[in-house]
Every structure is written in C-alpha cells, then in structure tokens.
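agent> fetching stored inputs for the phosphoric acid mono(formamide)ester docking request
agent> found them:
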Amino acid sequence: MQTNLRGRDLIGDLDFSREEVETVLDVAWDLKRKRALGEPHPYLRDKVLAMLFFFSSTRTRGSFEAGIAQLGGHGAFIESTTTQIAHGDTAKEIGEIYGRYFDGIAIRHCDWKLGNQYLNEVARYSRAPILNMQCDVYHPFQCLADLMTIMEKKGRDLRKKKIVVSWAYAASYLKPISVPQSLILQMPRFGMDVTLAYPKEFPLMPEIVQQAQDEAKKHHTSFEITHNMEEAFKDGDVIYAKSWGPLLTTSDPAEGKKLQDMYKDWITDARKMKLAKEDAIYMHPLPADRNIEVTDEVIDGPQSVVYDQAENRLHAQKAVMALTMS
Ligand code: CP
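agent> prediction call returned; pasting tokens
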C-alpha cells in the first residue's frame, strides 16, 4: 500500500502509479463502508476545498461538495464567470492566491487546448494540491469511479476482461474526449483488454493512444482499434459507449455537428448489447442523450450500472481528498 500521497496533484490518470491507485480504491471502499454504517469519518476537519468551474456539472459538483463536507471540511463553489478571471486574474495568480487560502483546488476546465494547460499552470504556483474535475484531456476522477465500479461488478482481477470504449452518436453538443482518453490509459494497468471504437473522423489524441498502447504492452494486455461499433461489442465484458466531438478533425462546431450527424446509427441498443457477453455491464458517465446515444431500454435495463457508477464518484473522490489534503 502506497501511503505518501499527501500534497500530490491528480491531473492526469497516470500521475498516480498503479499501486497508488490501488491505495485510493482501498480507502474508497473503506469510506463507502463507513458511510453505509453511518460512521463519522472527519479526516479533513477544518480543511477547505476550492471548486473552480469553467463548465457546467451535475455529478462532479455534487459529489465533491458532499464529499468534502462528509470528511469534515468545506467546499467553496466558485464559477469562473463570477470571479475576476475574465478581467485578468491569471492561472499563476489563482495558484499563488487560492493555494494560500485553500487546502486543495479542484478545477473543471474543458476548453479544447486550454483546460489541461490551465490546470498545470495553476499547479505550478499552488502550494495546495490540484485536483482535475475534468479538462480537455483527462477526467481522472470519473475513471477512478469507473474502475471501482468495474471491480465491484467483475471482481478485482480484471485480467482477460474486455472493455469496449466506443464512440456513440449524440445530438446535444460536441462532448469532450477526456472520458475515453482516461479509460484507455487506466484500464490496461489493471489487466483489461481494451477495444476502442470510433468513426474515422473521431480519433483521440495520438500521443494519448500511444501512451495507452505502451501501458497495454507493459501490462501484457491487448489494445485494438476498430471503426465498427458492432464488431467492437462482440464478447465485451464492459460496454462503455458515449459520444465525443471530432476535435482533432475540425475546430468548427457546425462542421463537427455535420460529421456527428453522419453516424446516427452508433446508438447502444438491446440488439447491439446482445453481441456482448450475456453478463456484460453497460456504463456511461452521464449525462446521456437518451434514445440517441443509448436507448432507455439499455440505460434503464438490468445490465446498466450507471447509478452505481455515479455513486462511486463520491467515494473515490473522498479517498483522493483524504489522502492528498490531510
Ligand atoms: N460525469 C460527469 O462528470 O458528470 P457532470 O458533468 O454532471 O459533472
């Protein structure tokens, strides 16, 4: 068990070693048990977390705010639009100043080619740890909750289990690519075989895919890419299908929408789920475009674990806060 996480940032999924992630999971399950039993666990009494949002949120905000309160601390919800960031506060100033006020700074900044750079710049100047509530490149807390959920459903030994990380059609907006990127980076370290599926206009960042392939090689797991959703689903143990924007193909939202609309048949439905293993689970980080990205029948059906997955955000985040902010 690795116990030296105090003061550490979590910005990219590989910032914590596999052993450190295992520590996070152990603590997360302990905190989950304590909450179930109603046992107080104020490991962060009098500590304050800044939660700085440049983008909307339901689950991330709710679970971080509830989590820090359950640990005995306080979460300060701050929206970039109601700060002086628009009037000139730089990332350096946020790091220097908020790092002195707060015991941790959690940031969500998903703007393409800006978000990750911003988090790293704040981290450079902050004396408090920086926690990535989603940027343009990574969504590490979602991925920790996903890993925790997969282990709860499939067992802690995930070797030879196949996770399908698939693109799906959505009509609402061009979603970030951070969730699939985090998944392909993290899951090979825990023995999972990864199949990544997307229409050819929707690739992920080549350097992230290369890193994921390197992790797969290092951990003796397989990593495959296909442009056929049905082929990908075959024999899957975990079906994780969600939409993302064609950010590496075009920066024009209208062009992106046109590309997206070419693939309306990339929906997760009962017919496609039948291609996976009989006991396969369906995962989605939410929000989902219902009956566009996934049918009600699947997301509300017996194979769906989306609510357990959302719950585990709370426990995984509490574990990282307790380990890094104490
Ligand atoms: N999955 C997730 O990050 O949800 P929110 O965008 O609602 O925070």
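agent> quick read of the result: The radius of gyration is 19 Å.
agent> awaiting further instructions
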